[in-house]
Specification:
The protein is α+β, with helices and mostly antiparallel strands and about 300 residues long. The chain contains 10 helices and 11 strands. It has one domain. The strands form 3 sheets. Strands 3, 4, 5, 6, 7 and 8 form a 6-stranded mixed sheet that branches. Strands 9-10-11 form a 3-stranded antiparallel sheet, with no helix packed on it. A two-stranded parallel ribbon has the order 1-2. InterPro entries: Papain-like_cys_pep_sf (IPR038765), Transglutaminase-like (IPR002931).
Length: about 300
C-alpha cells in the first residue's frame, strides 16, 4: 500500500463533527459506499434543475467558499440531523462544486485507511469535444495502484459510459497531461475551459491548473478559483524559463497516477519550493459570487 496520502491535510481533516453526524451508523470503508455517502449529502450548484430546488442565493455564494471538510460538516450539521450515511433532501445538503465532492471523498477515504488525494484537470464526459475544468479524487487500490474516482457523477443522476470509481485516464486528463497535450500539439488549448463560463479557457487556464494540481499533491487542496505565483501571470509575462518549469512539473504530475514513486508528497513539496510555484500565506481568490479577494491559508508542515 502507498501510505503517504493517508495523512490528512488541514483541508481534509474531518474533526470531531464526523462522529456526531454519523449517529449510530459506523463510517463505511468501501470506496463505493463512501462515494454514495458523498453523493447523498452534497448538491452541485449546477444541479438545481435536476433536484427542482431553488437554492438560496447565500448558499450559492457561500457554501463553495468553504475550504475545509470541517466547514462542510459544520454546514451539514446546521441543515439537518439526518445521519451522514442517509441520503438527504436537497434543502439539507451542502451546495458544492466538483472540488467539494473530491475533497469530501478524499477525506473519508483517508479516515478509513485508504490513501487518497485530489487531482485537478479536465473531464471529457460533460460536453462532447470539450475538456471541462474539473476536480476528482485519486485513491490507492491494492493490485491496481492509483485509480481516479468522481463522486459527483456517482449513482443515478449522471449517465457515464464508465464506472465513476474507475474513471479512464483519457476521460479525465490530470492537468499535467492536459498541458503536455497542448504543448505538443495533440490538443487545442481552446477546448480546455469552464463550459459554464465560456471566457475562461485556453493555455493560461491549463497553466494555472498544473500548479493547482501540484499543490494538491503537496498537501494544499485549493479552491478552483485560487491563484498565486505563476498562475497569476498574464500570458505575455510568461517566460521560456517559466514554460520549461511547467514542462518539468507536468512530467512529474502526469507520471504520478502511473508510478507510485513519481509524486510522493515530499517530492511535490520540493517542486513547490520554487517561488514561482510556492503556495504563499495569502492567495488571490477569484470567487464566483464574491469578487476577487485575498485569502489567508493555514500553514502546512514541510
Amino acid at each position: 500500500m502507498d501510505s503517504d496520502y493517508l495523512t490528512h491535510s488541514p483541508y481534509s481533516t474531518p474533526g470531531p463533527l464526523l462522529d456526531a453526524l454519523l449517529g449510530p451508523d459506523p463510517l463505511p470503508r468501501a470506496p463505493e459506499a463512501l462515494a454514495a455517502l458523498v453523493r447523498g449529502v452534497l448538491l452541485h450548484r449546477e444541479e438545481r434543475e435536476t433536484f427542482a430546488y431553488a437554492v438560496p442565493v447565500e448558499r450559492l455564494r457561500e457554501d463553495a467558499e468553504s475550504r475545509y471538510v470541517t466547514e462542510i460538516l459544520r454546514i451539514l450539521a446546521e441543515r439537518g440531523d439526518t445521519p451522514l450515511t442517509e441520503e438527504r433532501a436537497p434543502a439539507e445538503r451542502f451546495v458544492a462544486t466538483c472540488r467539494d465532492f473530491a475533497l469530501l471523498l478524499c477525506s473519508l477515504l483517508r479516515e478509513t485507511g485508504t490513501p487518497a488525494r485530489l487531482r485537478g484537470g479536465y473531464g471529457t464526459y460533460f460536453q462532447a469535444g470539450f475538456h471541462d475544468n474539473h476536480w476528482v479524487t485519486e485513491y490507492w487500490s491494492e493490485g491496481r495502484g492509483w485509480v481516479l474516482a468522481d463522486a459527483q457523477v456517482y449513482g443515478d443522476l449522471h449517465d457515464t459510459p464508465f464506472d465513476p470509481l474507475d474513471v479512464p485516464r483519457d476521460a479525465f486528463l490530470v492537468a499535467g497531461d492536459a498541458w503536455r497535450a497542448c504543448r505538443e500539439g495533440r490538443a487545442d488549448p481552446e477546448t480546455f475551459g469552464v463550459f459554464t463560463v465560456p471566457e475562461i479557457k485556453g493555455l493560461g487556464l491549463v497553466r494555472a491548473d498544473v500548479v493547482a494540481d501540484l499543490a494538491a499533491l503537496g498537501g494544499v487542496e485549493p479552491l478552483p478559483w485560487d491563484g498565486w505565483g505563476l498562475m497569476e501571470k498574464d500570458e505575455a509575462e510568461v517566460t521560456e524559463e517559466d514554460l520549461a518549469l511547467l514542462d518539468s512539473v507536468a512530467a512529474v504530475t502526469s507520471a504520478a497516477g502511473h508510478a507510485p514513486d513519481a509524486a510522493r508528497p515530499e517530492g511535490a513539496r520540493r517542486l513547490l519550493a520554487d517561488p514561482r510555484l510556492a503556495v504563499p500565506a495569502e492567495v488571490v481568490s477569484h470567487t464566483t459570487y464574491c469578487g476577487v479577494r485575498t485569502v489567508t491559508l493555514p500553514r502546512v508542515a514541510a
